[in-house]
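VOC domain-containing protein
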Amino acid sequence: MLFHYHYWTPHVEETEKFYRENGFRISQRVGRYQGEFQEFNPPLEWNDFREKNILFRIIEARRGAVNITFGFGKKVMFDHIGYLVTPENHDRICKNARNMGWDVQVSERRTFIATPYSFRIELQTSKDAIDGITEEAELQKLTIVTKRNGLENDLSLLFGQPVSHIVSETGEMVAIKEAFIKGMPDVTDPNGVRIYKR
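Predicted structure tokens:
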């Protein structure tokens, strides 16, 4: 199940505000402050730490079966998408990725697969990554801009079945062009992701 995407952005506070205003809750904030990674999780608000010059590594926004994360970057840059999978499917997908020559990094918390399309794929087996599977909020489809053709075919090989929830277009910069999220209005986030309800 597609559930997640991650961006690096100079618009960290604006991105959090955008998703909060569209029904997401902020579940965590982790940032580097005075040389150490620290948590600034809710109930803390931005007014509690805005003057502290924190470099946020990750802010996590959740709504139902959707998990969107972002962290500070000097420019807007799409990093990865994520799938919630069973342990059995996880192992099968990793085997397929290795057979395709794609790098696979497995850890206790999650697995990352490096694609030749300049973004990564996260595999998550823990249902704790989402607030719950609900028909009210789910990530149904993404349009991804890549610099090369073949993404849909490669994803079908990776997952061992046709993939209809990812559509690709070629362009100059790798990015998510459109996200179809059930339960959200038609809006554009501060990083240029156009969000449509389905």
